[in-house]
From TrEMBL:
The Aminoglycoside phosphotransferase domain, residue ranges: 50-282
Gene3D superfamilies: 3.90.1200.10, Phosphorylase Kinase, domain 1 (3.30.200.20)
Lineage: superkingdom: Bacteria
InterPro entries hit by this protein: AGP_Transferase, Aminoglycoside_PTrfase, Kinase-like_dom_sf
Sequence segments annotated as region (Disordered): 1-22
Listed name of the protein: Aminoglycoside phosphotransferase domain-containing protein
Length: 328
């Protein structure tokens, strides 16, 4: 999910007519089109079933033969993200304690579809956002995530990735400025204003106190680490037993302050579960915590707006809960 630098709400009062949602697709590949593309480029999958698996801001995802997932970009902005995924993910496979996608089959632009696409073996599990797990049953996943982030944020891993050639060697430094409360705080306020205006969210003074206190911090000045870059409740997968089974959707992978990923500790977990996550991860300074909490509010508000517009009730409940957790 790549959010716009200026949220649609910022321009809403300046335009005539409805605002086009940021996630509106430029190309949308349905199951029939996906099957034709796969038959053309990967003949071994010619007879495989193809069903719509998921949609997001940047990609349409189809399940192929019950064991492959293929990601087809929906917007031109996703092409740069796809290049980063296909360059970085192969270097991370086997180096992290949770499964991640491994792009094995790379599709190329053709007369049928103008953009590249890729396929990986299915990472099993259900999005945390869809589990409906109460906070007091999230501890197992929290511990798993804390250990995962500890490994991902190891400076040696960033050095390894940056020593490669190609797109991985030129990963941007927090291009969406997600680690900067001076940017993400005002954006969060605008998304929250939209939610309040539509009656979806009841304004909470604690949220605005957090933003007021954290926005002056600005970005961190420490060395960046490798981050997932868009880690929220849709991108952490869980099994039936509540354990984490994988981390998906790596298009925003970049170099940034660890707070960018730690935002999920504050939007997706609370109480003992969050404490267990942070125990598994390691020390987090008050400034890093504040930056993470601001991004937790921001991303949760964006998810809530998307869920409300798209009629995704479970995601809306989880996203609104994420706003509340971020100040607890």
């Amino acid at each position: 999910m790549t959010t716009p630098a200026v949220p649609p709400a910022h321009e809403a009062g300046k335009r005539a007519g409805p605002v086009t949602p940021a996630w509106t697709p430029e190309h949308e590949v349905d199951a029939e089109q996906a099957a034709a593309l796969l038959a053309e480029q990967f003949p071994a999958l010619r007879a495989a079933s193809v069903t719509l698996f998921a949609t997001g801001w940047d990609n349409t995802v189809h399940l192929v033969g019950g064991e492959w997932v293929f990601r087809f970009p929906r917007r031109a902005i996703a092409l740069r993200l796809l290049a980063h995924e296909t360059a970085v993910l192969p270097q991370l496979v086997g180096r992290l304690p949770l499964p991640i996608p491994f792009p094995e089959l790379i599709g190329v632009p053709s007369a049928r579809f103008p953009w590249p696409f890729w396929g990986a073996r299915l990472v099993p599990g259900v999005e945390l956002a869809d589990t409906g797990l109460p906070d007091d049953r999230r501890t197992r996943a929290a511990v798993d995530l804390g250990g995962f982030l500890r490994a991902l944020h190891d400076p040696a891993l960033a050095a390894l990735v940056m020593s490669a050639s190609g797109p991985a060697a030129v990963l941007p430094h927090d291009p969406m400025r997600r680690g900067d409360p001076a940017v993400r705080g005002p954006q969060a306020r605008e998304w929250l204003a939209r939610l309040a205006a539509s009656g979806v969210w009841q304004p909470d003074p604690a949220v605005f106190r957090l933003l007021d206190e954290a926005e002056p911090l600005g970005p961190a000045d420490g060395p960046p680490v490798l981050v997932h870059g868009d880690l929220h409740q849709r991108h952490l997968l869980l099994g039936d037993d509540g354990q984490a089974t994988g981390v998906i959707d790596w298009g925003d992978v970049c170099l940034a302050d660890p707070a960018v990923d730690l935002s999920l500790a504050y939007s997706g977990f609370a109480g003992p579960a969050r404490a267990a996550l942070l125990d598994a991860y390691g020390p987090v300074s008050p400034e890093r915590e504040a930056r993470a909490r601001v991004l937790a509010v921001n991303l949760s508000a964006v998810l809530a707006e998307y869920a409300h517009a798209e009629g995704r009730a479970a995601l809306l409940r989880e996203a609104l809960a994420g706003v509340s957790r971020a100040v607890r």
